[in-house]
Amino acid sequence: MSLTATHTIREGAFGNGTHLSCRACGAKSPLGPFYACMECFGPLEVGYEYPTITREQIEAGPKNIWRYQPLLPVPVDVASYPNTEPGYTRLVDAQNLARELGLRKLWVKDDSGNPTHSFKDRVVASALSATRELGMKVFACPSTGNLANAVAAAAARAGIRSVVFIPHDLERPKVITTAVYGGTLVAVEGNYDDVNKLASEIAGEEEGWAFVNVNVRPYYSEGSKTLAFEIAEQLGWRLPQQIVIPVASGSQLTKIDKGFTELGKLGLVDATDYKVYGAQATGCSPVAQAFRDGHDVVKPVKPDTIAKSLAIGNPADGPYVLDVARRTGGAIEDVSDEEVIEGIQLLARTEGIFGETAGGVTVATLKKLIATGQLDPEAETVIINSGDGLKTLDAVADRVGPKVTIPASYDAFVKAGLQ
């Protein structure tokens, strides 16, 4: 990606961000339209020089992710530009689910409450800011569905052209809830990894195209930190002891870890220990397999699972997910599609939260981690529900429905034994 010929990056475009740093070799690059290290081609992420930041300063901010503007690569006036204002979703005290699973204390961070009903609104808002500051003209992405929704909606709100690429066999609700925003939706024959490869090729050739999770990725991924910030703030400015996070590319997990770490370094929370657990579906579980095998390299797989939002066979952040899980004393596990469906129903039945398949993966993995003794049932635990079950209705469509059909009479009601 390159800047347009007449565009100059303004001072403060990336807030307190000061540079880009290679996650592989540590080499630093200037802030700008760069996403791969010039020394080793490793992935870049944003580095900061933070001023003093107080809890009171954050609490006085808006009830969305921009309350954390000083901790993100966005300008101080970011909220003044049209955006979907995601974030500050509820943290649910999941007493019923905790009781059923034998946990002392469990919270569900329910990100289905975001504008397009998934956590992707967070990362897209951060990417949109970078796209604007870099002078890019097309807002684009390859997506397994949730990101497609978020990009199309954010582009419509901001008045910028969107082009979204999806696998041809994506769930119908996710196709509709992307197309409705009026951008250009392109179905690509193949799976997500095929779509991502095409997006990378286009990003390398077309000037002015910002692919949020490809060539704007350093800024995009920082949006996931706001999950960590909100969890800590909603817990009364402290860190949970354990957290279970769904793994697709792995970026959400690594950035939540980064967010917790930054809060500790800034003195906004006590830097207490916590364990990070990753959740995958067995039909696309390359990171879980690498964890079990003790490998540092993640071997790509061909996805075959109902959890399409997690169906990334070659996850970009896979090695870093392994690092986080091992460093914190956590683990990466996977569960079958049958367990995923049971997880969706369990969360809905106990807490009234209808999660999509990724949420089912997370709940089922939590259950498995408890059963295998990998997760401490006495430790305070948070799980992430990253999206709304209305997007993946097919997963449970043949499992739920009316218990009985009766004539419209009281006698029929009585005969059915429904008193």
TrEMBL record:
Which residues carry the post-translational modification N6-(pyridoxal phosphate)lysine, per the record?
Answer: 120
One example of a Gene Ontology biological process annotation: threonine biosynthetic process
Query: What keyword terms does UniProt attach to this protein?
Result: Lyase, Pyridoxal phosphate
Q: Which cofactor does it need?
A: pyridoxal 5'-phosphate
Listed EC numbers: 4.2.3.1
Q: What Gene3D superfamilies does this protein map onto?
A: 3.40.50.1100
Q: Which InterPro entries match?
A: Ser/Thr_Dehydratase (IPR050147), Thr_synthase-like (IPR004450), TrpB-like_PALP (IPR001926), TrpB-like_PALP_sf (IPR036052)
Q: Does the keyword ATP-binding apply?
A: no
Q: Which GO terms describe its molecular function?
A: L-serine ammonia-lyase activity; threonine deaminase activity; threonine synthase activity
Q: Which CDD domains does the UniProt entry name for this protein? A: Thr-synth_1
SUPFAM superfamilies this protein is in? Tryptophan synthase beta subunit-like PLP-dependent enzymes (SSF53686)
Question: Where in this chain does the record put each Tryptophan synthase beta chain-like PALP domain?
Answer: 86-387
Stated family = Belongs to the threonine synthase family.
**Identification of the protein by name:** Threonine synthase
